[in-house]
Amino acid sequence: MFQTLRTLLLPTARCWDANSERSYQDLFERLDTNKDGKVDVAELRAGLKAMGIFRLGAAQKIVSSGDKNKDGSLDFNEFSRYLKEHEKKLRLTFKSLDRNNDGHIDASEIQQSLAELGMDISRENSQKILQSMDIDGTMMVDWNEWREHFLLHPAQNLEEIVRYWKHSTVLDIGDSLAIPDEFTEEEKSSGGWWKQLVAGAVAGAVSRTGTAPLDRMKVFMQVHSSKTNRISLIGGFKQMIMEGGLASLWRGNGINVLKIAPETAIKFMAYEQYKKLLSSEGKKIETHKRFMAGSLAGATAQTAIYPMEVLKTRLTLRKTGQYSGMFDCAKKILRKEGVKAFYKGYVPNLVGIIPYAGIDLAVYESALCLINHSANPGVLVLVACGTISSTCGQLASYPLALVRTRMQAQASLDASDQPSMSSLMRKIVAKDGFFGLYRGILPNFMKVIPAVSISYVVYEYMKTGLGIS
Question: What is the largest CA-CA distance in the chain?
């Protein structure tokens, strides 16, 4: 779809010449929608969206780079001067990828160049990247195709282009079980990795806060809803508001946000160590080993922060006046129930990491491939893929999440009344049927789209603010 729109907007792109003023004039006139002889940020942003370039700050960056008289827009001279300078940089990047100097880039050259930057991708993925730029279907990209694809893209070198392909989105729906992000050696040495992590953490915090009422409703229904005590969505919200007021809908959100930073940091550090352990000296780590390293890193992070998960459940379910805060809650649990209470439900939580992370990752990749072969998909495509993958991941792991929450909530019972994971599952199925394992899944599904959308927007704005757009 985006290729078609780009072709409509740039009909002469394939025969452009670096010295051809006419081709720049045609493009300028198409972007100058109000015909005032200037292209401002709004007009350029509309043009970029039509071509599928949905990078927040991209239009502003192009205008800022080319605006010599600082009037907030580009006249034709400024516009053509910017394009000429940008083309020179694109030409250098193209030559660095064209390793055999035959005037074309193929999939193996993309794969090899990315590998040298510390990003090991499969042949299939390198072909997908190639297809997003290949206009004539030859499975090779010449200079004209490369220029058309990146002429109005603010990336100026291979590292920026690779970073755009890799970090197009981070999706956080409050269940941080997915495989950690990877960073190139250049990103690690330059310190750019911590900015990515900070941007992701802030996006997760805002996203979780925005969807906290639905998250509390999910936990409330997981623990209290049954065939004999049916709780509807509206009825549940009324019950919570009557008991604790409107602010009670955000109970447990403070610690849910607080655990993002340690979980992300531990996961990232553990992932790097597991990759080293699983890979041979001097060799690239294979995909299945990378997935294994990611799952182990997720398990390590969950083990370290699990007491915070228990506190989150208890604080979410608390009644007015039961605890004065998270420290008071922790002290009371420790005094009455002992250290073991902080790890109730740990086994189903750990088991749930594998299906959630595996299915979420696999479905996201598949959906993205089916919906759009572009290496630079738009916001709606990314949100759709993220929503589909999260939904499938949750369907597979939700029964384990429900059992975990029940065990966390029932930790205060006598030892004889505390069922194991398998016996609690059998008890739920016997009492409420198979669908009893999916109590609370409606509010859980309802929060996916807003959580993914908020995460995406905040993440992009954070990256712009931190200078990594």
Answer: 83
The model carries a pTM of 0.61
Residue spans of alpha helices (H) in 245-286:
253-258, 260-278
Q: How far apart are the first and last CA of the chain?
A: 24
Sign of CA dihedral 430, 431, 435, 438: negative
Burial of 416 (0-12, 13-18, 19+ CB in 10 A): exposed
Q: What is the pLDDT of residue 372?
A: 43
- Give the residue among 356, 425, 366, 358 at the shortest CA–CA distance from 391: 356
Q: Taking a C-beta distance cutoff of 8 angstroms, is the pair 416, 410 a contact?
A: no
Domains assigned to the chain: 2-166 (1.10.238.10), 185-465 (1.50.40.10)
* Helices within 318-437 (DSSP H only): 326-337, 346-371, 379-409, 421-432
* Integer Cα distance of 445 and 391 in angstroms: 7
What CA–CA distances, in Å, run from 203 to 159, 168, 313, 394, 454?
24, 14, 22, 20, 7
Residue 56 CA to residue 31 CA, distance in Å, equals 18
The pLDDT of residue 12 is 40
**Which of 374, 233, 223, 446 is CA-nearest to residue 313?**
223
For 174-198, the pLDDT digits (tens) are: 554 444 455 655 556 666 677 777 8
Confidence band for 209, pLDDT divided at 50, 70 and 90: very high
C-alpha distances (whole Å) from 127 to each of 110, 153, 182, 288 are 9, 21, 20, 20
Written as six digits, the tokens of 240 are 């919570």
Q: For the chain, what's the residue count?
A: 469
Rounded CA gap, 68 and 88, in Å?
19
**Would you say residue 60 has pLDDT above 70?**
yes
Residue appearing with tokens 């899944």: 441
Q: What is residue 319's DSSP assignment?
A: P
Nearest to 117 by CA among 93, 142, 147: 93
Phi and psi for 118 in degrees, rounded to 5? 90, 15
